[in-house]
Amino acid sequence: MGILGDFLCYFIPMGQVLGTTASSFALLAIALDRYQNVTVAIISKRWNPNLWKCLLAAFLSWIVSSGWSWKLFKYKGFFHYKMSKF
């Protein structure tokens, strides 16, 4: 193993889950924004969120995704795998 071998053994599965959940939450935020555009347009008002609401939604999606994937980083240490030598 290299210098970062132990760290990467824990971090790579966490990074995979982090990217997947962050993109899922981003799609959810886009869908909610589109829903607001359609439903508010029926009432004849325009849905135009300011920059801070958009940044807050992006920040919260990354925080929730990090919390979700942190469990995988934390509990991966309890499972030790034995590698056979070839």
TrEMBL record:
Residues 1-86 form the G-protein coupled receptors family 1 profile domain. It is a multi-pass membrane protein. One of its GO terms (cellular component) is plasma membrane. Keywords: G-protein coupled receptor, Membrane, Receptor, Transducer, Transmembrane, Transmembrane helix. It is found in: Membrane. One of its GO terms (molecular function) is neuropeptide binding. Its main location: membrane. The chain crosses the membrane at residues 7-30, 50-73. It holds the Pfam family 7tm_1. PANTHER family: GH23382P, NEUROPEPTIDE Y RECEPTOR. Belongs to the G-protein coupled receptor 1 family. This is G-protein coupled receptors family 1 profile domain-containing protein. The lineage of its organism: Eukaryota, Metazoa, Ecdysozoa, Arthropoda, Hexapoda.
